[in-house]
Amino acid sequence: MADFTVSLSLLAGIVLVSEVTRRLLLRLLERTGLAVYAVELVSTFQLCACTHELKLLGEVGRLEPRFALTLTYLASVVHALTFHGAIGNPSVTLEMAYRRNLTGRCALLRIACQFAAAVVARAIVRVVWTLGLTDLHLRHKLLGFQCLSPIHAPLPTAAAVELACVFAVQTAATHTHAVDEKYRVHAIATVVTAMVYAGGSVTGAVLNPALAFSTQFPCSGNTFLEYCLVYWLAPVLGMISSVLLFDKVAPLLSGKAGGEPPYRPLESKKWN
Description:
- The protein contains ten helices and no strands.
- By secondary structure, it is an all-alpha fold.
């Protein structure tokens, strides 16, 4: 219980420091055009750093599934409410570029920021764990921060699970565009949590290429290319499948000239 309390305090501290940093950078860089990229860096760092700690609680601390899912839901809501327009997910960034909500250059720069933040988050959390704030941190340090691959199925099955989970979240995000933002955040967080419950035992249900690069790629058990297949290619294909189905195929079958109204992303969007 003491370790759990310290971990929750650490999570709150990460969010608080990230929020202060975001607000400061927004003021300092307001007229430079760089504010969006700075916010993208800080927000993706927040997402990855918090997920590292949650992952440690679940895998090393053996947190009960119901508590783990509750924290997943709460973390999804908190990230969405604090991101200040950041995306934090390369798949979503590509989708927004497709819908012309972002220019190609802006999308590529945001994706670069997301992966850079993923690397920084992995390094920073290891420094924090080295401080030995909890027994979990000390144990993880003694094991050399070792982690095992969360893929517990043949690669085609694992890739299909990630694809299906991203398809579900993408579809939920697209079809709740007319819902009031304060309700939409909770609706999408609920879907994310459901996908983590459904696919977590197979792949960890990461749903985010940058987040996977930070939390899963360092783990032993699979090769880099195998991780790319499951955590990079599958999520992108899941996003593309949802977009094509509801933007192109469904309107064609229904005889409508156009699909859904233009997609309106969450003002502060995060997928786990």
